[in-house]
Design a protein that fits this description.
By secondary structure, the protein is an alpha+beta fold. It folds into three domains: 37 residues, no CATH class; 129 residues, Nucleoside Triphosphate Pyrophosphohydrolase; 145 residues, Globin-like (Orthogonal Bundle). It is built from eight helices and ten strands. Strands 4, 5, 6, 7, 8, 9 and 10 form a seven-stranded mixed sheet that branches. It has a three-stranded antiparallel sheet with strand order 1-2-3, with no helix packed on it. Helix 4 crosses helix 5. It is elongated and about 110 Å long.
């Protein structure tokens, strides 16, 4: 419990309580002096490595043996940022550079009274983690396995930090998968653009009707104007749904090869020119892309990335489809 002030530090007279405006304060009648109880400034620092956060186990009371961020009081004559970096180095032996302010919070502690918590995110610039004088242990904890923290304001700051990084981590994960170029079933739902692909699959009817109108009026696809529209539309819906199933891992590259080589062979027997079939496929891609853009996925960075990721995945699928259509049309189905 925080100790009360009983005597004047200047003259040692017993203090009384006296109103200053609407506030009751300690007062020394001899010195004619009010005493103010202002919140103590406390600094904390978040140092992250990948998706783990550096914590220290407290050596002393209060909260001895509990985990917290590198935390301590700011001293007279130093800035808040320099105080945060000093405490970081004293408790963990790590030197850092402040990146940004994460949170400002106030808290009433039974030991210290009113506290004013300022938490920064910092970059680890040098040194190796080593428990300092005020710490028993120092360690990185994955964000999914964080222990209970001693200070409520630390917990709040860490939650804010994690929320601020979620979009970035999601983009990084999706980009990593995209570079791998894998479409195994276990990848279903891991790409950010899977959200858009689901919408595309659900709206295959709408997209196919738009495609049908285009393909029956485009000069590059004259035969489609003479072909049964309902049949053409149904076949286009199959292409759109295959796009989603391939990206979701339900269709293999071999499935795509077999389907589109047969498609090329069939269109040739039906009297379509090869240029028409490729043009019709391009129109499918165009209308899928336009539908994706119409979903207003441009409001946040993660939405923009999601849409651009979809465009890249569309390119891979439709390039494969076009290649196998040509091979099938040329008589290469058996190879």
């Amino acid at each position: 419990m925080k100790k009360k002030r009983n005597y004047c530090p200047h003259c040692s007279e017993t203090l009384i309580k006296k109103s200053e405006g609407d506030t009751i304060r300690d007062f020394c009648e001899k010195c004619n002096l009010y005493f103010y109880d202002n919140p103590l400034p406390v600094v904390s620092t978040i140092i992250a490595k990948e998706r783990s956060i550096l914590l220290v186990k407290r050596r002393n009371e209060p909260y001895e043996g509990e985990w917290c961020l590198p935390t301590g009081f700011a001293e007279t004559g130093e800035t808040i940022k320099s105080a945060a970096l000093r405490e970081l180095e004293e408790e963990t032996a790590i030197e850092g550079k402040v990146i940004r302010l994460v949170d400002v919070d106030s808290n009433n502690d039974p030991f210290y009274g009113d506290l004013f918590f300022i938490t920064f995110e910092a970059e680890w610039t040098s040194g190796e983690p080593l428990a300092g004088d005020d710490a028993i242990e120092v360690n990185f904890f994955p964000i999914t396995e964080l222990p209970k923290l001693a200070f409520r304001s630390n917990t709040k700051a860490v939650e804010i930090y994690i929320r601020s990084k979620q979009d970035f981590w999601a983009i990084a994960d999706s980009f990593s998968l995209s570079l791998e170029g894998k479409t195994a079933k276990k990848r279903k739902g891991d790409f950010l653009s899977d959200k858009l692909i689901k919408l595309i699959e659900q709206n295959a009817d709408v997209i196919s009707l738009r495609w049908l109108e285009a393909v029956r009026t485009n000069k590059s696809t004259p035969t489609y104007a003479r072909f049964a529209p309902d049949y053409s539309c149904e076949r286009n819906k199959i292409v759109i749904k295959q796009f989603g199933k391939w990206l979701g891992g339900y269709y293999s590259n071999k499935d795509i090869k077999n389907f589109y080589r047969q498609l090329g062979k069939d269109r040739k027997s039906e009297g379509f020119a090869l240029s028409e079939v490729i043009s019709a496929l391009s129109l499918t891609r165009k209308h899928v892309w336009e539908f994706a853009l119409s979903q207003q996925m441009w409001t946040k960075t993660i939405d923009i990335y999601m849409t651009l990721e979809l465009e890249r995945r569309m390119m891979l699928f439709f390039d494969k489809a076009a290649y196998h259509i040509v091979k099938g049309y040329e008589g290469g189905f058996a190879r």
